[in-house]
Amino acid sequence: LFFRLIFGTLYPAYYSYKAVKSKDIKEYVKWMMYWIIFALFTTAETFTDIFLCWFPFYYELKIAFVAWLLSPYTKGSSLLYRKFVHPTLSSKEKEIDDCLVQAKDRSYDALVHFGKRGLNVAATAAVMAASKGQGALSERLRSFSMQDLSTIRGDSSSTVPPSVTVRTSSKQGQPKPSRSASEGTGSSGK
To answer: Whole-angstrom Cα distance, residue 85 to residue 110?
Structure first.
């Protein structure tokens, strides 16, 4: 693990930095090929570790593979990239791009769907807390309840409790009932 961290990740990262800094295209391409192969190796390693960890010298073979990828003499990453990865990705590039676009669209749709559901759950929880009489929170959230909003729109099917002050717009031409007015015309049997 330590060997792979130093020589498989930090060493190539530093030389990638130097290639970008010097703007040497040849070095830049060499390190990009290494990173593509190393990413594929790391992905494959996740699965092979599960099934092949019992194999004798398995971990030593992984270290030797990383050394082979890095070696300027064997040019392992360049060899693998040019012989296998580049031809495979070139032939499947259209399908991979289409799959990525579909995955991106689905993830966006899922994010929007779950975001709406989350907002609905939060709004429902806020209204439930307000309806249970949670003190000052209840009074502040009461103005956001669906009952109050439907009354403002002029929906006559909803009923307004006597303790709620309803404000109507001046365009509707209706008087603004206050708390005392609605209680005065209601029941007088206290």
So the answer is: 32
